[in-house]
Amino acid sequence: MSQSEFPGAVLAKGVSLAFSEGQGWLSVLTDLDFAVRPGEFVSIIGPSGCGKTSLLKLLTGLYSHRSDVRVSGEVFVNGASSTSARMSRQIGLMFQSPLLLPWRTVIQNLLLPNELIQDSPETPQDPTVILEQLGLLQFQDYFPANLSGGMQQRVALARLLMYRPRILTMDEPFGALDEQTREGLNQDLLELWRQESPTVLFVTHSLQEAVFLSDRILVLTDRPASIYAEVQVSVTRPRSLDQKFTVDFLNAQKELRALVKEAWDEQDAGREKGVDR
Ligand SMILES: Nc1ncnc2c1ncn2[C@@H]1O[C@H](COP(=O)(O)OP(=O)(O)OP(=O)(O)O)[C@@H](O)[C@H]1O
Ligand SMILES: [Mg+2]
């Protein structure tokens, strides 16, 4: 049985993606090969505009059947081709902004996906259980405008968990938050991951956040993105905030920084020489 046949597994084989641009195509991802094990926590780091969001959208099936997006290669998520129908409940996507409906309360926002897809065979979780888990129960009847930014992102995370997807794809979900709020959410996410073992694909620009959360980090080149390096993070688990000051943690961060610099310097040098990478 190949890895792609396990629930929670993600497999990309020779994946390239381009967007229609004028008369031609803008190449965004080129020949990506990677495999993510069920329950693994993998972060993705790459320069702005290199194609990270596009990669997550591709994995969640958002580009299926679109004539303005050209995809080649193969993507398997939970063992199924990512272009197959009804991907959305098995793989959840969380964005940098919470995208809550302002006229609906917290609990009503959580119930929205269920109202939109009435004939779904999957049963949603009890929203109050998830809200309790994320420390939001007492705010269930609040409107988004009356919540802090961190609380709004917690609600977005709660909404993501309503169908307990085996795979969570998260696109800089805490990037707009202050450091302390971000650390709190990082800890909550790790606790949830420890309890439920979803596969997580996490895009971030913070090397420290990537090291703190991940089993493995994929370092992407500039657009069109390819994988420059994969870094295994050997910092012991469970991880606490204090570990950020240990030699192991700092070394991991240093190694990652060096690789990222190498990847991006190499790309710049290539550009100067007019080399098409
Ligand atoms: N729907 C689209 N149509 C055309 N071009 C697009 C589309 N979506 C993204 N792009 C282009 O694809 C490239 C990659 O965009 P993407 O949003 O994936 O980058 P990113 O790595 O997530 O960047 P950031 O770190 O700033 O979020 C950009 O040049 C962007 O303009
Ligand atoms: Mg992005």
Explain what you see.
The chain is of the alpha/beta class and 277 residues long. The protein has two domains: 3-90 and 168-272, P-loop containing nucleotide triphosphate hydrolases (Rossmann fold), CATH 3.40.50.300; 101-164, no CATH class. The protein has seven helices and ten strands. A hairpin with a 2-residue loop joins strand 1 and strand 2. Helix 2 (106-116) packs parallel to helix 4 (149-160) and helix 6 packs across helix 7 (247-272). It is globular and about 55 Å long. The relative contact order is 0.16. Adenosine-5'-triphosphate (ATP) is lined by residues 19, 26, 28, 46, 48-54, 223.
Into how many domains do the coordinates divide?
2
Q: Tally of extended strands? A: 10
Bound molecules: adenosine-5'-triphosphate, magnesium ion
Number of H/I helices: 7
Strand order of the largest sheet: 6-7-8-3-9-10
CATH domain class of the largest domain: Alpha Beta
What's the gist of this structure?
This protein is of the alpha/beta class and 277 residues long. Helix content is 32%, strand content 24%.
Distinctive features:
six-stranded mixed sheet; binds magnesium ion; binds adenosine-5'-triphosphate; 2 domains; 277 residues; Rossmann fold; four-stranded antiparallel sheet; alpha/beta
What order do the helices and strands come in, and which of them pair?
Blueprint: E1 10-21, E2 24-36, E3 41-45, H1 52-59, E4 69-77, E5 80-81, E6 91-94, H2 106-116, H3 127-133, H4 149-160, E7 167-171, H5 179-196, E8 199-203, H6 207-213, E9 216-220, E10 227-232, H7 247-272
Parallel strand pairs: 3-8, 3-9, 6-7, 7-8
Antiparallel strand pairs: 1-2, 1-4, 4-5, 9-10
